Amino acid sequence: MRIGLISDIHFGLEEEPAAASPAAAELRSCLSHFNRCRPDFVLQLGDLINGSDNAATEELRLACRIFDTCKGTIRHVIGNHDLAVPRDELLLSLGLQCAYYRFTAGSYRFIVLDGMDISVHNEPETPSDWEIFDKALAEPSMHDYCGAVGERQREWLCSSLQDASDNGEPVIVVCHFPLHPATTDPKHGLLWNHREIREILAAYPAVKASLGGHFHHGGHTRENGMHYIVHPAFINRTEHPGYACAVAELHPDRLVISGNDNAVLHNLALT
């Protein structure tokens, strides 16, 4: 199976017309790369737009228009910058009924999390969610631009993981925010309740890896047999021009991620 990966595009409206900007041209180049590689689907890992104060809706409209040039299936993930657009409008534009969802491709179950479920953009729903929210906002190191997975979504996650385990399906978890401190830095931060989510994932040996973005320089670590992978940001492509986008090859026992220059970024055993 082949999966296209692109993260943290931060598509913004600048002084020059966005449709003719270098960023738009290079994004089209990444989508052309995907069209040539013909992945089974493309994961857009969040922060599709910059979320400019007076232009977020137009940024989203233009970014979606560019993504229309991709011939394959796009699986979108919600990032913090994306919620400069009202949630209902954002989901409609991205073709999502819900910000967290699951799907099967090949022999794998993919579980996409909404890391902004509890956030300044989404009022907590339960006492447990309010506790997480209040604790995060009281601690500056948690960052008010990050968020958490809420109680109802955690219940759904456990149910989805149990279902995949019962069906003998290996699992890849996807979230915009890093789930492990070793894959980010203090400035960018990570999912507010990352420890709790990692504990849930560790209880299911079916989970092989997580994929995400947010930390623009990318990262990788392994814990309890599971790989935590953060993909480098498109917006930082001048720092790592070979990884403006990537293609992941998912084998039964190995995950190989190669950049748009075909250089291997990760070659990981899945055990």
Helix content: 25-40%
Q: Largest beta sheet, briefly?
A: 6 strands, mixed
Order of helices and strands: EHEHEHEEHHEHEEEEEE
Unreliable stretches (pLDDT < 50, length at least 5) are none
Please count the helical segments.
6
Characterize the overall form: globular
Distance between the termini: 17 Å
Average pLDDT: 94
Describe the overall structure.
27% of the residues lie in helices and 22% in strands. It contains six helices and twelve strands. The strands form two sheets. Strands 3-2-1-10-11-12 form a six-stranded mixed beta sheet, covered by helices on one side. A hairpin with a 2-residue loop joins strand 8 (219-223) and strand 9. It is globular and about 45 Å long. It starts with a strand and ends with a strand. The mean pLDDT is 94.
Structure at a glance:
With 271 residues, the chain is α/β, with parallel strands linked by helices. The chain has helices spanning 22-37, 56-67, 87-94, 127-138, 151-166, 194-202; strands spanning 2-6, 41-44, 74-76, 101-105, 108-112, 171-174, 207-212, 219-223, 226-230, 246-250, 254-259, 264-269.
